[in-house]
């Protein structure tokens, strides 16, 4: 068998190349020069190695497999899928065995079995060698690409000359980025007894990254920790040409990330050119903080969504004066919670009662108590705006001082009679 392989090496190599083009589609897309030179050389080396195994019964050493390892690294660099590379070697082995089979007679059964086992061992070794060479190159490329991404992200956040530096790193900047400041809630596994919180956090971060990359389909710049971070999503149009469809798409991406990772995500968002990313990053973190402080809940929030609350986050005498209007309710969380719910429900006492799971008469009672304490009547059209602004200012001051405003109201002990 080894004499027949080496004796028909040129003819057999051409047959393997033809079969590769027919059965492994990606090889049909390679330049003809590459097939006739680089790929042909690798096929010849593989056939020679196989003949040597059949002659000696010994598998090749690492030095003899270097050509195959280097070839796998080149295919990785070219973007040829690893499954296609591995299949190519099996296709070559199949072609060789099929050409040898007609020469075997009834008395060659033992030799055929021995040769089959040797070829299987040789394929096992080649597969391991090819996978190692392929993924060593992929890991090196991924590390280099990740380093370039992080360098560009740092330059963008620092406000450096990103155009010049990104060109140096071979990184194309888009017309604009959707800038996201994320607050990521804990996954249940992080608090499950017996589960490593470190592993749970790593799994959460990986799922967030994978889902983000899957939906965006372009290089995403991100710095994510256990509780959130910053994300830059590239877009192909300038910031001024973005539409509501772009923002709806982004909201969908964040929603998918939240669902797949099993966590709640609150995101502040804006759009910025690469030169304006540094300022935008500070803004989205403020928007996120305002959204959380004002009870906006999970999702994507832009400045236009929290204009009033954002403005009231600014320290000053006006904000403090507004917050003081509801100061008498600071130790009455059920009254503050009812005011919030009443405004959230469009001033409907029935919907407020359903939301808080209390009787409508209890809602009326609490609103009267709040009006008596503050002088602001939430049921009066003239006071509604002041009540809303006072609650926003109160929440803003709580956020700055590290306090958490009550999200709702507990059950009231007051009877629900008429």
What is the approximate shape? elongated
Query: Between the first and last Cα atoms, what is the distance in angstroms?
Result: 102 Å
| Succession of helices and strands | HHHHHHHHEHEEHEHEHHHHHH
Overall strand count: 5
Percent helix, as a range, is 55-70%
How are the strands ordered across the major sheet?
Answer: 2-3-1-4-5
SS field, number of helical segments: 17
**Uncertain regions spanning at least 5 consecutive residues:** 404-418
Overview of the structural elements:
It is a single chain. Helix 5 (66-78) packs across helix 7. The chain has three domains: 2-141, Globin-like (Orthogonal Bundle); 176-311, Alpha-Beta Plaits (2-Layer Sandwich), CATH 3.30.70; 316-401, PucR C-terminal helix-turn-helix domain (Arc Repressor Mutant, subunit A, Orthogonal Bundle), CATH 1.10.10. The protein is elongated. The protein contains 17 helices and five strands. With 418 residues, the protein is of the alpha+beta class. It has helices spanning 2-7, 9-23, 25-28, 32-56, 66-78, 82-100, 109-158, 162-168, 197-216, 244-261, 277-293, 307-312, 317-325, 333-344, 349-356, 360-374, 381-401; strands at 176-184, 221-225, 228-235, 265-272, 299-302.
């Amino acid at each position: 068998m080894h004499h027949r392989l080496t004796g028909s090496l040129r003819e057999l190599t051409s047959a393997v190349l033809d079969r590769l083009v027919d059965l492994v589609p990606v090889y049909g897309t390679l330049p003809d020069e590459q097939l006739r030179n680089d790929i042909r050389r690798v096929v010849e080396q593989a056939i020679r190695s196989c003949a040597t195994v059949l002659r000696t019964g010994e598998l090749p050493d690492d030095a003899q497999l270097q050509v195959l390892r280097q070839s796998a690294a080149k295919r990785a660099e070219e973007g040829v899928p690893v499954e296609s590379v591995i299949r190519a070697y099996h296709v070559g082995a199949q072609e060789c065995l099929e050409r040898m089979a007609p020469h075997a007679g009834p008395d060659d059964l033992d030799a055929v079995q021995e040769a089959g086992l040797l070829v299987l061992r040789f394929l096992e070794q080649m597969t391991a060698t090819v996978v190692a060479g392929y993924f060593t190159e992929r890991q090196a490329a991924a590390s280099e690409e990740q380093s370039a991404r992080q360098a560009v992200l740092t330059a963008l956040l620092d406000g450096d000359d990103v155009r010049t530096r990104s060109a140096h790193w071979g990184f194309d900047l888009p017309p604009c980025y959707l800038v996201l400041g994320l607050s990521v809630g804990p996954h249940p596994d992080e608090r499950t007894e017996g589960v490593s919180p470190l592993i749970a956090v790593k799994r959460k971060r990986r799922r967030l990254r994978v889902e983000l990359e899957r939906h965006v389909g372009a290089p995403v710049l991100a710095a994510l920790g256990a509780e959130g971070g910053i994300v830059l999503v590239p877009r192909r149009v300038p910031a001024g040409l973005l539409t509501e469809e772009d923002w709806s798409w982004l909201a969908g991406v964040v929603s998918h990330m939240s669902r797949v990772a099993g966590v709640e995500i609150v995101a502040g968002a804006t759009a910025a050119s690469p030169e304006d990313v540094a300022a935008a990053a500070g803004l989205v973190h403020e928007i996120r903080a305002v959204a959380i402080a004002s009870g906006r809940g999970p999702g994507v929030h832009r400045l236009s969504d929290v204009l009033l609350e954002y403005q009231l986050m600014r320290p000053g005498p006006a904000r403090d004066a507004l917050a003081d209007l509801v100061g008498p309710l600071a130790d009455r969380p059920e009254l503050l919670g009812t005011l919030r719910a009443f405004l959230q429900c469009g001033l409907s006492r029935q919907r407020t009662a359903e939301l808080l799971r209390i009787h409508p008469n209890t809602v009326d009672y609490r609103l009267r108590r709040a009006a008596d304490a503050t002088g602001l009547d939430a049921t009066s059209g003239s006071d509604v705006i002041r009540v809303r602004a006072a609650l926003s200012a109160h929440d803003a001051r709580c956020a700055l001082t590290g306090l958490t405003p009550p999200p709702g109201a507990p059950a009231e002990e007051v009877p629900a009679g008429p």
